[in-house]
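With this grant's support, we have settled on a layout for protein records. One resulting record is reproduced below.
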Amino acid sequence: MRLPPILPAELTGEQRQLYEDMRRGSSAKYSSFRTVDDHGALLGPWNAWLHDPAIGAAMWGLSKALTAASRLPDNVRQILILVVGAAYAADYELYAHEAVARTKHGVSDEVLVSITAGRMPTSLNEDERLAYDLASALCQGKALSHLAYRTGQRHFGQPGLNELIYLVGYYSMLAITLNAYDVPAPEEPATQPA
């Protein structure tokens, strides 16, 4: 890890405000994986954002906006997030969203293994298959084909397709952040400390 965890006692005023908002939000939203260490320092992207609180606050704001404007079913969101995490081999992103997919949506280990290996699982439903295909295409860094765009538009509606595109972009940026700062998945199981 290239950026050391910032302990709560070491936070500046600007960092403290962001820390408290991110800690509250991440703890409420994500109970199936660790977002803080045993000393109260934030893990994952939240630690990186604290090191640059002006930019970190904007990133956290985008995260909250994408959650508030959710139009896609949660299972579809998790599939496309996992596709992005796998495309970038982002350990913490995969750790976190495998836990969410497993505990909140009952996704099997076989499905998770297939996605992280870059293969579409055969058991996905129609929405999940299309999200998998669109996210995979976008992760290749090329323009989305007209046929893929129109199919996504017909299937999810324009607002749903917009959300899918924004989520792939956001989680790609997140994966790049995690990889650049060499943020590992915690070694302990994916559960929050008491």
Summary: The radius of gyration is 17 Å.
